[in-house]
Amino acid sequence: MGLTLFRFKFILILLVIIILLLFCSIGILKVLNFHRGGLRLINNCVSFKSSLLKGHTQLPKIETCQKSDFIRDLWLGRWTRYGKNDGCQISNDGRYRCLAPDFPCQSPWCSGSLGLLESNGWVYSSHCSFRLFSADSAWNCLKNRWIFFWGDSNHVDTIRNMLNFVLDLPQIPSVPRRFDMNFSNPNDASQNVRITSIFNGHWNETLNYEGFNSLADEGFRNLLKKYFSEDTLPDTIIMNSGLHDGVHWRNLRSYTAGADYAASFWKEVMDSVRQRGLAVPHIFYRTTVATGGYARTLQFNPNKMEVYNWVALEKFRQAGLVTGVIDDFDMTFPWHFDNRCNDGVHYGRGPAKMKWRDGEIGHQYFVDLMLAHVLLNAMCSK
Ligand SMILES: *[C@@H]1O[C@H](CO)[C@@H](O)[C@H](O)[C@H]1NC(C)=O
Ligand SMILES: *[C@@H]1O[C@H](CO)[C@@H](O)[C@H](O)[C@H]1NC(C)=O
């Protein structure tokens, strides 16, 4: 009997609380302010509501990335959107110029011009947010520098996108898997940058699926060493591994040994630079992409590659090689469920108004263009 009464009271109190909360949320109590008690209730209700709201909408305090922000291994970023053009059409050249080129970034999610990202309003940020570079600011950062890339074919796309979209060189239709070239600013011939890129999917640039095992070839090792044996050296190395390794190394134990060897190879190269009294290049490890759509189930599936990424990074860190990390796995992951932003294994294929893998015309290339800006942030921040 006593227990039933207790239960009844409990349910009654619960009901009153639920009704009060309901009133709070729909603001009905506003019409009940006929005396002081009601007024106090409304005040309490309003302050309760606003503290609830505050709890939910408190923005993380993020600021523009500094050099030290790239030390962090794991990024837990997000893509946010605050511009949208519903009527946006693909151009004949395959590009999506949805927002005005000067459409501004919104603080704190990025700084610079969001329109240039051709993402119809999307932008990526992590524990810090990124600056989107204009051609002038990118050239001012890269002038007189030598950037050395070592990695898979995603580098090939990213480099071309950086040249086409950011560095104002749209006439360069592609770059090869292996090259060493000087580029100059079309608006200021005194500004030059040297970019070298060596594919590591295989020691033979026309073949695939060796990954770190490409270092088993002496000719390939010598090719790499050559760039670090002269008086002038690259100032920055951006390296990755991944998709090809996913095919070659059948299990974690064998991959760990491969990553160990790759780390010891690069350590030897850097030690020789140090012994000659020269400045050792800054090395950024860029994690590999999350493969998308149909490619999610292949040998380089994201579950496997995420683990391989961290093993490689750990080995390179232990060898004292890593200046910073760029977590492209985190950047690509939200877009890997279908092929809208990738062809399975590349996020930066050149824009084209043609049938894409998913049957639609054209594809989105902004995820890789975002990476190009993130690389610039890593190379240029103080
Ligand atoms: C690029 O420029 C550097 C220095 O100006 C020079 O040493 C190098 O040979 C050039 N590379 C090519 C491929 O022209
Ligand atoms: C690279 O592979 C291709 C295709 O198998 C072959 O024709 C070529 O001779 C190889 N190049 C080298 C340098 O081994």
From TrEMBL:
Keywords: Membrane, Transmembrane, Transmembrane helix. It comes from Salix purpurea. The chain crosses the membrane at residues 6-32. This is CYTOCHROME P450 FAMILY PROTEIN. PANTHER family: CYTOCHROME P450 FAMILY PROTEIN. It comes from the Eukaryota.
